UniProtKB/TrEMBL annotation:
SUPFAM superfamilies noted in UniProt: Actin-like ATPase domain (SSF53067)
Superkingdom per UniProt: Bacteria
Organism annotation: Anoxybacillus ayderensis
InterPro entries according to UniProt: ATPase_NBD, FtsA/MreB, SHS2_FtsA
Pfam families associated with the record: FtsA (PF14450)
The protein's name: Cell division protein FtsA
Gene3D superfamilies: 3.30.1490.300, 3.30.420.40
Length: 715
């Protein structure tokens, strides 16, 4: 035999069920109402008062069926809390995501939902809730939805879940009431699950159906679709709403109003006695019209919650159970608000439960008995029991509603999952040729999880008395990288310069200084890598400073001013073709540089158009002569230079000019040898252009000069 209790807000139902070869027989049913408001919205508020009712039912059934020590019960579905949670982690640079990584993400999202739920109740903590199940609603990689995270890579991975929780207080108070009645909890289920299991078996759950259990204080809602239960919900409004409306309208005591409400279901005329003692007979239709507004409020609240839970769409059908479902015209009004045909909203009694037999005919169509019978059957078929495990020395009791895992135990222990993974090591940020590069530290290690001394994972199943030890993973190490690791492979070129072969490598500077490829980088290092590109850069890289200098224009300082002779510099030939100093070079090039020659004083003067001499052509005694007189001179370090003296690149020179003085007749004697005739009696005459002149006569270009010798006449 199966003994089950349905502890509701208004009453407690005790039932004895007998199972024979998968068939169930209802042996007995006892219903007893609470004498006080000991229950509120399915939650036990007065353990002593509730246990007293349980004891009365137990005694009644024991008198008929013998001792009862174990009982199947249900936690109120209205106590279930549903919350969404999401967690995001950086996976940039990490290896492919594994099943263990995904499990960690899912559990972290569940814990986030648990914390959100706890924040809504300021006096609660997150681990004061049992997670009774969760579903993943969305996986994301870099903000894009994806079917599975396993073996995926990217920058960020996210998981979004919807998780269902049951406050521990609900279960603890239920246990306390049973213990006072000297009953041991044989099995536990949830009220929505109980009703669903007997009315909507798994084979029917592919249909989008809403099950509404309308009790006294609340209306519990469960939605099925796609083969599973997709949502639970609760409306804090039920049969008492109608009772209170009757009480207010006709001045009735609450119990009398409750009886009047029940009579509406079976009688055409309801007899009532108000608080003043007046007895009145009210036609059924009249009373329904009087409380029509209350019926509408209940139908409106239930329909809105159904639509909210069902993604704002009407389900295919709605099943109503519970005593409140007998509210007049409620199915019809629900159908209207959900835009469903009237035959798609129906009240279901225990006669709709398959493989169930009951001898009492009056009980077959009572919808308030569906949940108690469902509790007895569901608790036997899929019992929910307690599992006690040890987590890091702390004893944890879990609500065994599914296959429990180590992840469930960590959630129940209040361990913050996001702190279990080791932190990544500090990154190293460097600049390479102006671009910022972040070198991540090593990844933190996953937590070390042991179950009974053996290595385990988040999804390792657990059983009663397991000992679990979890240690935080080691933090990652700070980024360490050599310069060669950052640069990978560096290109090289082979060239020949003036017959000598060179291997050209890129220039590598670290913070402005040449660096070895073996150097370990530090945070904020500035790395510059440059491959020589032009002839000039090539000579710099090969340290041909003398050749590089030859490419510069010939430069001197003249009278304190720097003078450049751009036409006087070395010539570059690349593979036999002349090219400028900014020309590029390639691997295998043959380069020849013809160096610039030294320059003379005369060349400097000519290039600067400076006159060193003044010349005058004349004819002397029939021969052409050129008279020359110095009018300018170059000096180096105070010493006068000759015209053929060499001037070096970078020399400092001074140039001095003299006033130009005309040539006179006597200047020719520096250029000619005059043969004086022998004899003292000889005289001479100076002629310029055939006319007598003097030694001091100025000359002009082309003048014809003569010296005519004559003998003196004898006296």
């Amino acid at each position: 035999m199966i003994f089950a209790l349905d502890i509701g807000t208004r009453s407690v139902v005790g039932i004895i069920l007998k199972e024979t070869d998968g068939q169930y027989q209802v042996e007995d049913i006892v219903i007893k109402e609470h004498e006080e408001r000991a229950m509120l919205d399915g939650q036990i508020h007065d353990v002593l008062a509730v246990s007293k009712v349980i004891v009365d039912i137990k005694k009644t059934l024991e008198e008929r069926h013998g001792p009862l020590t174990r009982v199947c019960v249900a936690a109120a579905g209205r106590s279930l809390k549903t919350e969404k949670g999401k967690t995001t982690i950086s996976i940039k640079g990490k290896p492919l995501l594994t099943h263990e990584d995904v499990m960690y993400l899912e559990l972290a999202a569940v814990q986030q939902a648990q914390m959100t739920l706890a924040e809504k109740s300021s006096n609660e903590k997150s681990h004061h809730y049992y997670c009774v199940g969760y579903s993943v609603t969305r996986y994301e990689i870099d903000g894009e939805e994806i079917g599975s995270l396993i073996d995926q890579q990217g920058d960020e991975a996210s998981v979004e879940v919807i998780a269902t929780f049951l406050p521990k207080l609900v279960v603890e108070s239920l246990l306390a009431a049973l213990q006072r009645a000297h009953l041991e909890m044989e099995a536990l289920t949830l009220e929505p699950i109980a009703a669903l299991n007997v009315l909507i078996p798994p084979t029917m759950r592919r249909l989008n159906v809403a099950l509404v259990d309308i009790g006294a204080g609340t209306s519990d809602i469960a939605i099925t679709d796609g083969g599973t239960v997709i949502a639970y919900g609760m409306v804090p409004m039920a049969g008492d709403e109608i009772t209170e409306a009757i009480s207010d309208a006709y001045l009735l005591d609450f119990p009398l109003a409750e009886q009047a409400k029940r009579d509406l279901h079976t009688k055409e005329t309801v007899t009532i006695t108000d608080i003043l003692g007046f007895e009145t007979e009210v036609p059924r239709e009249q009373m329904i019209a009087t409380i029509s507004e209350a019926i509408d409020r209940l139908a409106d609240a239930i329909s809105k919650e159904i639509l909210r839970l069902n993604n704002h769409q009407s389900p295919k059908a709605v099943m109503l159970v519970g005593g409140g479902s007998l509210t007049p015209e409620l199915p019809k009004r629900l159908a209207q608000k959900l835009h469903l045909p009237e035959n798609r909203v129906a009240i279901r009694g225990i006669d709709a439960i398959q493989k169930l037999h009951i001898d009492r005919e009056e009980m077959k169509h009572r919808p308030e008995l569906v949940t108690p019978i469902g509790i007895a059957i569901a608790a036997k078929q899929t019992p929910i029991q307690y599992v006690t495990v040890e987590v890091n020395g702390q004893s944890i009791r879990l609500f065994d509603m599914k296959q429990l895992t180590i992840g469930d135990a960590l959630l129940a222990a209040g361990i913050q999952l996001h702190k279990l993974y080791g932190k990544p090591g500090l990154a190293c940020v460097v600049t390479l040729n102006g671009n910022t590069i972040t070198i991540p530290g090593t990844h933190g290690e996953p937590p070390m999880i042991m179950k009974n001394g053996e290595t385990a994972t988040f999804d390792t199943p657990i059983k009663n008395s397991d000992r679990i030890v979890v240690e935080k993973g080691k933090d990652g190490k700070q980024a360490t990288v050599q310069l060669r690791d950052l640069l990978e492979s560096l290109p090289t070129k082979q060239v020949t310069i003036n017959g000598q072969q060179y291997t050209i490598e890129p220039l590598v500077l670290r913070n402005g200084e040449p660096a070895s490829l073996d150097a370990v980088l530090c945070d904020r290092d500035d790395i510059f890598v440059h491959m020589p590109e032009t002839m000039e850069q090539l000579l710099q890289a090969t340290k041909n400073d003398d050749l590089l200098q030859q490419l510069e224009p010939f430069t001197i300082t003249l009278n304190g001013k720097k003078i450049k002779f751009s036409e006087w510099c070395a010539t570059i030939y690349r593979n036999g073709m002349e090219c400028p100093r900014y020309a590029p070079f390639e691997d295998g090039d043959h380069i020849v540089i013809h160096q610039q020659n030294e320059r003379t004083v005369a060349q400097i003067a000519e290039a600067r158009q400076l006159k060193l001499h003044y010349s005058l052509p004349i004819i002397f005694n029939g021969e052409t002569l050129t008279l020359t007189k110095q009018i300018g001179a170059f000096y180096r370090n105070g010493e006068q230079l000759h015209e053929d003296d060499l001037v070096q690149h970078g020399d400092e020179l001074q140039f001095s000019e003299r006033k130009i003085e005309p040539f006179i007749f006597q200047d020719i004697f520096q250029y000619v040898q005059v043969d004086i005739p022998q004899g003292a009696s000889t005289t001479f005459t100076l002629l310029k252009n055939g006319k007598p002149t003097t030694f001091y006569e100025t000359l002009a270009p082309g003048d014809q000069l003569e010296i005519v010798w004559q003998k003196k006449k004898q006296l």
